[in-house]
Structures are given as structure tokens and as C-alpha cells.
Amino acid sequence: MALALLVGLGAGVLFGVIPAIHYDVWRAEPDEQTATPEAAQETPTPEPTATPEPTPTPQIEPATAEEWVERYMTTMSAQEKIGQLVMFGFSGTSDVQNPFREIWGNYSVGNAILYGANIKSGNSDGGFGVAKTLTGRIAGSVNNSIPPLISIDVEGGSVVRFRWNPQPVSARSLGRRRDADFAKEQFQTIGSKLVSVGINLDLAPVLDVSENPMDTFLETRIISEDAGIASGIGSAVIEGLHAGGCLSSAKHFPGHGGTIEDSHAVTPVVDKPLEALQSYDLVPFASAIASGVDAIMISHVLYPALDGTDIASMSKPIMTDLLRTQMGFQGLILSDDFRMDGLTTRYEVGDAAVRFLLAGGDIIICGAVSEKQQAILDALNAAAADGRLTQERIDESVKRVLLLKLSLGTWDIQAQVAARTTPAT
To answer: What is the pTM of this model?
Structure first.
């Protein structure tokens, strides 16, 4: 039976009632004892009256998070805004090393992604000390006026970029267990551990579904072949990460499970009719949206029933028309890694970055290949300069990014606004 996709969103408009302000006018009463001036008395020449200075209009302080973010954005350069729309990886285990440091510093990179190679999980403290030091140095390498989103893949099972004991069980095991409370508890632990070392975004849960999950490269990463079970456990994962203070990102929209091909190596095709996608693949993502997922990652996969020309990460019909408009998602749209052959065999990486944003995406992920990172930043800045990327389109995504960062509670935006708008003395 086809399942409804659209998540009902209550849309309410709040009307602030402004009370009428009444001014009491003080009027002088004539003095009963006032004498009439004598005729012979010379009338003094009145002193010239000074022109009163205009009363300055009081500056109204922002009252909402959105207003504060909008105020902050007025202080940002075009390059700083572009820097908020990328999430880059780097090589090394102790620092953002050259040539990445130079690129990140010169282009105001705003976000980072960590991989297993960045964290020595096998040392005496399980890599916690290394990770905490590393995230602190990342914060000093990016645009340090704004805290970075620092992400990692900790899904459980085969994809755990940061390992500790006991290991989180796989998504497949969670699906077989069918225990939402257990899934929530496990990911609350994961979320709190990540936050304790400065990582604030877990690229989980995986919400791809497949009728034959062991026949796909995703294997144990898939929760279940049953879309209902995947939805329930996926929502529990999101709730658990939030309880641990960590952001969540569902993936790989609109569903990678319908193909056995790996988008790291080729451009897969999910050749399903629209009705099959609606009643199966998209169902867990609709549930995740209803559960308040913070971000959704877009796959480098071709879906002819949704867009016969472009892969999902380049597709306005998929990202804007389907995900935003039809499914009501208001969070961040992340790309899958721009190093993957599923993208690079069809598109030049710089042009792809521009296309991703024009199609409705928010943050471009690219791991440790400095040449690709440079090409992405050059292309985005050039497109902003020549008008291909309008200020409106850029600001739309920057606002989403900054609002999410503000929600973490680690950014003193009021102090930053004051520091950036107060003239130097």
C-alpha cells in the first residue's frame, strides 16, 4: 500500500499585538498672581532660540535567532559566505596541514569532516585525546568568528570512523532487534561521546532500503528491507543523537538501496517507477523529517523517474521540488563526497559545486584532495562574482547554516555582531 510522503507541517503566523502608546500632555495653567507689565517698561529683546537636535531613533535589538543571524550576515563578505557552504576534509592526525591550511585560511572555510585516518582510535584512550586536540585546531583553522560544523560517520557496524569499546552495533542489527528504545540509547551514547571531543554532526542514520540488502554494497549499513522498520529505528537514532547533544544527517536521499552499484566507483542508476519510490524508498526520509532530522545527504545516483538528466546531487527537481516543496524539509541539504566517481565521471568538480547550490543544496562535502577543494572554492567565488550564483541564493543557504550553528549553543553571536560592527578605536 502506498504510504503518504508529505509531512504535515503546522503553519502558523504569529501576530504581535502592539499596545497603543498614550502620551499625557502637560499644560501650564496661568499663574493667578501674574501682574500686568507696566507700559513704561521696556520690552526685552528675546534671545535667539536654539534649534533642537533631532532625537536619534533607538536601535532595536534583535529578538529572535533569525534576526540575529540576519544582522550577522550583513557584516559578512562574499567570500566568508561561500566558506560557510563547504565542508572539507584534510590529511593528518594532529592538525589541518598544508596545503589544506593555506586553502582554508585564504578562503574562510567554515566546516570540516573527519575520517578514520584523522583519528588514532587504537591508542590508550581510544583516540579521545587526539580527537579533542584535533577539533580544537580545526576551530582555529576555519573562519573562527563562527564555530564550525565538524562531522564524522559513526553509523555503527562497518562504518565507524571513530572507534571505542564497546563498539556500536550495526544498523542491520538494530533493524533485526526492532527495539527503538535500544537504538535511541545507543545513539545517545554516540552523540554524547562525539560532542565531548568537539564533533557536533554525525552523518547518520542510513535510511536507504533494499528488498535484498545483502546484495548491495551498503550491506550492514541498511537498517531493514522493511520501510516501516527503517523509519522507526531511523527516527530513534535521530532522537538519540539529539538527546546526546549532537546533530543528525539522514542519507542517501532519495534512496541508494535500489542498486547494487557503488557510487564511489560508478554512477549508479535506480530505475524504479515513481510509485515505487514514493511507497518505499522515500518513506524513511519522510519519517526522519517528521522526527526533526537536521540535515539530509544527497546521493550521486541517477533516478530517471525523478530527473532524466542529472544525478540527485545536481537535480533541482529532486532537491528543491521533491525534498523542499513536496516533503517540507527545511534543514540542511548536504552533498555526498565530491571525490566520488559517481559525480566526477559525469561533471567537472567546480561546475558541479555551482550546480549543486543552484539546484537547492546547502553544503558541499569534499574530503582530503586539495586540488578539488581549490577548484570548488574558485568556481563558487567566480559564480558569485559574475551573478550566476545570486546573493539571494547564497544567503538562503548561509542563513540555514548559521541558524543550525546557533542552535548548538556554543556561538555567542551577540558578542560577534558587536565586535564586527563597532568601529576600531
So the answer is: 0.83
